[in-house]
Amino acid sequence: MSRDRTPDSHDFPTRRYDLVKEFVIALVVVTVLSLGLAAIFSSPDEKAITMSGWAKADPDNLVTTAASELAGTTTSATYGAPYNSAAEGQKLGPIPLQKLGGVRVPVDSADLVLGPLSNVSGDPKLSAALAHWKAATPEQQTRWATAYTDAIGTAAADGEPAAGAGGEVGKVAASGGYGPVPALSTALLGLAKAGGLEGALTSSGNFYGGDQTRSLLLLSDGAYLEDQAVAQNLGGDQWGMMNEVGNAPGQPWMWLYTFWYQVKPFSTSDNADAEVWGLMMLLTLLLMFVPFIPGLRSIPRWIPIHRLVWRSYDRTAQRR
Amino acid sequence: MSALSIVAEGPGKYIHWGVIQISVANAIIIAVMVLLFILALVVPFPTHDDQADEGHSR
Amino acid sequence: MTTRASELSPDATGPSELSPDPTGDPDSWTNRLRGWFEGLVPAGQALPDRQPVYVASWIYVFGVLTLTALVVVIASGVVLSLGGATWWHVSSVGHYVNSVHLWSVELFFGFMVIHLWGNFWMAAWRGRRAMTWITGIVLFLISIGTSFTGFLSQSNFSAQWIAAEGKDGINSIGAGAFFNVLNPAQMLLWHVVLLPLSVGLLTLLHIILVRRHGVVPPLDARLEN
C-alpha cells in the first residue's frame, strides 16, 4: 500500500501495561462465565432417532421409503456425487463442482434395503422374495417398485389432493403387479422395528461400525427425520442451520450463510447450495483482502468509529 | 442434568419478523455482543495517566 | 561440603560460555534456526511491560478474551475426550462438561467477532499488518469448521439432522467426496485433532505477528520526530 504512512508503533510514548495480569484476569473471568452459564443453562442432548423409533412412529413412511429405494426415486438414489452417478449434481455457473469431486463414497440405494435383508436367515418368505427380485431384470424391478410406490401414493398436502392410497400402506390393493416389493419393504419394516437395521447398515461385514453414511442416507430419504427437525425450527427454510433444539443457542455466526437460503433467487434455485457456497467464498475473500481493496479499506476513515477508541490519545495529541 | 436446564427443555421460542426468523437464544447472544461492543467503545478504560511518560519502548 | 549458590544456578559457568557466539559459524543450521527464531519478534517485544499510550480502550481486551475462551474450550474438550465420544450422554458430570464446552464456544465466537469488529473499525491492517488481519479471518473460518464438526460429533438428534442437512452444501462444491459429514468417526477426528491443531498453530502465528508489529497506531497519527 503506497499511501500507507502508518508510523512504527514502537516509536510512540509508552505507558505501563501488564499483559500477563490481563491474561490471568481474563482467564478467570471467562472460566467463571463458562462454568456459570453451563450450570444455569446446561446444553441440549436430544436422543438420536432410531430406525426402530421411525418404524414405530411412522411405519407407512418407512415402507414407502424402502419401496422408493428399490424404485430408485429417493433423494440418495438420484443424488449424484459423491454417492453415485445418478445425477449431474449442482453447478456453479458452468462448473460442475459436485461432479468434479467424484464418486468417492459409493452408495447403491437399493442396497440400503437389500443389503440388510440378505443377512436375515430363517425366513423362507423373505428368501423367496429376495430370490424373486434378484432373478428379475432391472427394468422389471423398477416397474414393480414404481407400481407399488404409486399405489401407496401420498397424503393430501399443500392444496395437492391425495394420490394412490393416500400414503396408507394398509389401503393398497392386494394385487397390482408389485412383484416381491411389498414383501421386501415389509420385511425391512420388521427388521427396523426389531432394532437390527442400524447395525446391518453400518457394520455389516465389519466388526467396528464407525461410518453412519448408509444409515443416515436411508434415514434422510424418509420424511420422519425432517418432520422432527421442522417441528423444532431446524428446517433449511426456517434459518435452521443457526438453530439448536429447544431454547439452546446454536451457531449464530452462521447467520449470513443461512440468510441466503431464505431469499430469492437462492430459495427457489436447484443449485442453491453451490451458489450460496460460491457467494460466501467470494464474500470471505473480500473480507480477507479488505486491506488491499480500495474503497472497502477506507470505510473506517469515512465512518470514524475509531475516534471513540482513540479519543483520549487524540485529546493529548491535540494539546501537544 | 442440571436442575435449571432452562435451555435444554421445552419447545424453542422464536421471533418472526418478515423473512427473519431467529431463536430468542441466538437473538439474545447477538444483542449482548452488540451491547458489549458499544460499551467497549464508550466506557473509559482505566489507565494510570501519571505513569505515562515520553519513554520509548526501544 | 558447602556449595555456593552460584555454582548451582544455570549460568554458573558464566554467560559467555552458554550464550550464542555472535561470531559463530554462519553455516551452522543451529545458528541459522536460532537467528530465525530470535528475529520473529523484536527484542523485548514478545512480552513487553509497556504499551504505546494510545492503547487505552476496552476494545483491546477482546483479543485476550478470545484467547482465554479458547483455553477454556480446549480444556473442557480435553476433559470430554477422557471419557470418550458418548460419555456425556450417560454421565451427569460428562453432561456438565459438555455444557461448559458449548458455552465457552459461544463466548469464544462472541469475543472473536467483537475483536473482528473492533479491528475493522480501527483499520488495524495498516502498517504492514495485512497478514495479521488475514490470519485472523482464516482463524474465524477454521473455528466455524471446528464447531461444525463438533456439532456433528454429538451422536444425538442434532448431529443426525445437521449431517443430513449439511451434506448438501458440502457435496455441492465437491468437497463431500473427501470430507464426509455422514461419517461421524471422520468428523470426530477432524474435530479433536486436525482442526484444533490448525487453530492452535494459526493462533500462535497471529499472536507472533501482533507482537512483531505492535498495536496499530491511531488513524492519522503523526510523529513529529
List keywords for this structure.
heterotrimer, B: 58 residues, alpha+beta, 33% helix, 14% strand, elongated, disordered C terminus, C: mainly alpha, Cytochrome Bc1 Complex, Chain C, disordered N terminus
Task: Detail the topology: elements first, then pairings.
The complex is a heterotrimer of chains A (320), B (58) and C (225).
Chain A: E1 14-16, H1 19-41, H2 51-57, H3 59-71, H4 97-100, H5 111-118, H6 124-135, H7 138-152, H8 181-193, H9 197-202, H10 213-221, H11 224-231, H12 255-262, H13 272-288, H14 299-302, H15 306-309, H16 311-319
Chain B: E1 14-17, E2 20-23, H1 24-42
Antiparallel strand pairs in B: 1-2
Chain C: H1 5-8, H2 15-18, H3 29-39, E1 50-52, H4 61-83, H5 87-90, H6 92-121, H7 130-152, H8 157-172, H9 184-213
Brief summary of the model shown:
The complex is a heterotrimer of chains A (320), B (58) and C (225). With 320 residues, chain A is an all-alpha fold.
Walk me through this protein's architecture.
The complex is a heterotrimer of chains A (320), B (58) and C (225). Chain A is 50% helix and 1% strand. Chain A is built from 16 helices and one strand. Chain A has helices at residues 19-41, 51-57, 59-71, 97-100, 111-118, 124-135, 138-152, 181-193, 197-202, 213-221, 224-231, 255-262, 272-288, 299-302, 306-309, 311-319, and one strand at residues 14-16. The radius of gyration of chain A is 29 Å and the shape is elongated. By secondary structure, chain B is of the alpha+beta class. Chain B has a domain at 14-43. In chain B, strand 1 and strand 2 (20-23) form a beta hairpin. The longest helix of chain B is centred in the middle third of the chain and has 19 residues, at 24-42. With 225 residues, chain C is mainly α. Strand 1 of chain A pairs antiparallel with strand 1 of chain C, so a sheet runs across the interface.
Low confidence ranges of chain A: none
Radius of gyration of chain C, CA atoms, in whole angstroms: 23 Å
Provide the β-strand percentage band of chain C. Answer: under 5%
Distance between the terminal alpha carbons of chain A, to the nearest Å?
A: 29 Å
CATH class categorisation of one domain in chain C: Mainly Alpha
